[in-house]
Write a structure and sequence with these properties.
Blueprint (H helix, E strand, L loop, with lengths): L1 H27 L7 E3 L2 E5 L3 E7 L1 E5 L4 E14 L9 E17 L12 E15 H4 L9 E16 L4 E10 L12 E9 L10
Antiparallel strand pairs: 1-4, 1-10, 2-3, 3-5, 4-5, 5-6, 6-7, 7-8, 8-9, 9-10
Length: 206
């Protein structure tokens, strides 16, 4: 009797294993290699320091899992007065950016109890920001002067398929810089999406 139960458990486990591998294989059939996408990212922080950032980028999948993108960011930055004598900061930050992203798992839902189409990726980014010297430099030049500052960000995130051509991304990054100028307070949270520039696949009745 115990041997029969053991065989049933073994059969069920084998069927589940076969189903899992078949599901993973079906997911991998969607090859993203050599596909273009746009990535309009957004960031928002409200409080003593207010930051509103819009950063569109155009990306390309080098392989199915490795993608790169380049774009431009614009940020409105303001800081409220903490003391009566403190000057209020209101300025704009802008400049180019580029990032590389590698998908570690394309579908965590295939082996974890989470929503299907949830991916996990690693992210590395470089951005160059044009800043007002009057607010961000420790040796401030005249108020009209600006300078460039480069930032390296590393981290990762999760993606969720929203449709055949769109994914939603939630990214957590860490500013690796240790210079006198600090634009970010770690960790950095961002929300964005990837919209693939491809035609919708046609469905046939047969």
């Amino acid at each position: 009797m115990k041997r029969i139960h053991f065989r049933k458990k073994y059969l069920i486990l084998s069927l589940l294993t076969i189903y899992s591998f078949s599901f993973l294989q079906a997911q991998d059939e969607e090859d993203l290699s050599h596909q273009f996408f746009i990535s309009p990212d957004f960031a928002l922080m409200l409080g003593t320091v207010n930051r509103i950032e819009v950063a569109p980028a155009l990306g390309y999948h080098i392989t199915d899992r490795l993608s790169v993108a380049a774009g431009f960011k614009y940020e409105f930055y303001s800081q409220t007065r903490l003391y009566p004598y403190q000057e209020q900061i209101r300025t704009s930050i802008y400049g180019p950016k580029a990032f590389a992203r590698y998908t570690i798992f394309k579908d965590l839902g295939s082996f974890l109890p989470i929503s299907p189409g949830t991916g996990l990726f690693a992210h590395a980014e470089i951005e160059s920001s044009n800043l007002e010297s009057y607010y961000f430099s420790y040796n401030p030049l005249p108020e009209t002067s600006r300078f460039w500052y480069t930032t390296f960000l590393v981290g990762g995130g999760i993606s969720q398929s929203a449709s055949e051509r769109m994914k939603l991304n939630f990214v957590v990054l860490w500013d690796t810089g240790s210079g006198l100028v600090s634009l970010y307070s770690n960790p950095i949270f961002r929300f964005g999406m990837q919209i693939y520039l491809r035609k919708k696949q046609e469905e046939y009745p047969w």
